[in-house]
Amino acid sequence: MKIERAYTIVTAPGRNFVTLKIVTDEGVYGIGDATLNGREQAVVAYLEEHVIPALIGRDPQRIEDIWHYLYRGAYWRRGPVTMTAIAAVDMALWDIKAKVAGMPLYQLLGGKSRERVMVYGHATGKDIEACLDEVARHVEQGYRAVRVQAGVPGIASIYGVAKRPGERYEPADAELPAEHVWNTAKYLNHAPKLFAAVRERFGDDLYVLHDVHHRLTPIEAARLGKEVEPYNLFWLEDCVPAENQESFGLIRQHTTTPLAVGEVFNSLFDAKALIENQWIDYIRATLTHAGGITHMRRLADLAGLYHVRTGFHGPTDLSPVCLGAAIHFDTWVPNFGIQEYMPHEDVTNEVFPHDYRFEDGHFLVGESPGHGVDIDETAAARYPYRRASLPVNRLEDGTLWHW
Ligand code: CS2
Ligand code: MG
Questions:
Q1: Which ligand is located closest to the Cα atom of residue 314?
Q2: What is the pLDDT of residue 47?
Q3: pTM surpassing 0.90?
Q4: Which CATH number applies to 3-104: 3.30.70.920, 3.40.50.12160, 3.30.390.10, 3.40.309.10?
Q5: How many whole angstroms from 376 Cα to the centroid of ligand 1?
Q6: What stretches in the chain show pLDDT beneath 70?
Q7: Which residue has the least CA distance to atom 12 on ligand 1?
């Protein structure tokens, strides 16, 4: 079997997505998600100019060799653009291998470790009351775990909070980055009140998560972690930027609040010290941004040695292809923690038909051969790409901060 052609499909059903399709001489094809939010066309150029020409004629069954060919062979290792491109190839090749085997992907990985995959949903509100209503809506739908984000008095626009209930908070249409203003003191004084209110209304059993989106310094994160210990969070996410992995050592000394990090990681090496020192509890790197299934299973295995569990990033800016492959991975991986779930819009699901199902706060993996997600190219062509940027964040004096 040989790779006969490969091409990228850029489409914006609700927001931009990049998909790589690899077609073999036997007619079997596989698809991979190559979406890097806000930098989509960089990955397209990388794939089309540097990767696809080198794939033609290769044996698609040699996933491991092709992975190393693209990783070592480029000489320039790692980085989000490279690792997203490699991930897309890897995901498409696993899709092909599983289709050829006539098996759902999770079977090739080692079979089911669980019957269903627990997810967390997003509850956001302009204030605590509005956020609690959203938590209630999730609980009614059967969610066991909910991430809570509420507006903070004195901060006009805050990460993760939609302007109106039910609306998405992720910008998908700003051609250039919007500018937000951030105040750490106001946030830190307010955040514990949100968790107190959630516990008061929903009791102890609900799994409660929160995302800080990299906005604190280590000592500020330590203060927050310590103050919210009575509310038993499932995790505190991205409390500081993680380029300096040692920062987490400092936070860890001060608090027992479980820590999650990694949605912007693109390789095992971004997490090596975090894992080996047991400074974190959950690793959030995703298949699409961290080298695909081949690399993520290595990362998950390393994490497992140190009691670190997976908590894959699952925002709407990753396509259903990534989510579908992730559900197979989650169904297999022994040290599974939780899967993030932000429901895609109907138009997105129309372009990406899939066989995974959401039921009662969990995903159920599909049984069709491959990763179970396809792309309808005719539908995709109806939604052309439009440049879209993530916002930036500034302190009140104008200093550029972490968004
Ligand atoms: C977020 C993301 O899902 C999350 O936890 O932090 O929504 C993130 O902001 C986006 O994926 C950025 O592309
Ligand atoms: Mg996050």
A1: 1
A2: 98
A3: yes
A4: 3.30.390.10
A5: 26
A6: 164-167, 170-172
A7: 37
pLDDT value for 172: 66
The predicted pLDDT at position 322 comes to: 98
Question: How many angstroms separate the CA atoms of 194 and 172, rounded?
Answer: 27
What residue type is assigned to position 369 of the chain? P
Are residues 210 and 236 in contact, defined by beta-carbon separation less than 8 angstroms?
Answer: yes
pLDDT of residue 183: 97
Note whether 34 and 94 are within 8 A (CB): no
* Domain at 109-368: CATH code: 3.20.20.120
The predicted pLDDT at position 165 comes to: 63
Residue 249 in tokens: 């050592």
CATH 3.30.390.10 domain position(s) in the chain: 3-104
- Strand 29-33: give its sheet, edge to edge: 3-11, 17-24, 29-33
Atom 2 in ligand 1: residue holding the nearest Cα: 315
Q: Known catalytic residues?
A: 159, 213
CATH 3.20.20.120 boundaries in the chain: 109-368
The answer to whether 121 and 145 are in contact (CB under 8 A) is yes
Choice from 147, 211, 319, 338 to test ligand 1 binding pocket (greatest atom count within 8 A of CB): 211
Residues counted in the chain? 403
Structure tokens at 348: 């997105």
